[in-house]
Amino acid sequence: MSEVLSNYVPRKQAAEKLGNALRGKPYTEKTLIRWELEKYGPPVTRIGREVVYFWPSVEKWLREQEKAAA
Fold first, then answer.
1. I need a surface site. Which of 16, 42, 44, 50 has the fewest CB within 10 A?
2. Phi, psi torsion values for 44, nearest 5 degrees
3. Which residues of 1-11 are buried (b: 16+ CB within 10 A; e: fewer)?
């Protein structure tokens, strides 16, 4: 597999990886679907019916969620 493709993860894997990192248990695919529909979550790449996440973009999105302490 090329290095470019290795940075893309399917929705199920992205949900598990992101949830485990943030809350200690995986998110479900439904969470990422809901976020996508609400135009909230990380950017997605669609290839036909398949949805994948470019992991560096997910990490960038996560950093953009940071807010200064009030």
1. 50
2. -120, 160
3. eeeeeeebbeb
End-to-end Cα spacing for the chain: 45
Q: Give CA–CA dist 64/22, Å, rounded.
A: 15
pLDDT tens-digit series, residues 3-53: 778 899 999 999 999 999 999 999 999 999 999 999 999 999 999 999 999
CA separation for the pair 38, 27 (Å, rounded): 16
Q: What is the pTM of this model?
A: 0.85
Q: Are 44 and 29 in contact (CB under 8 A)?
A: no
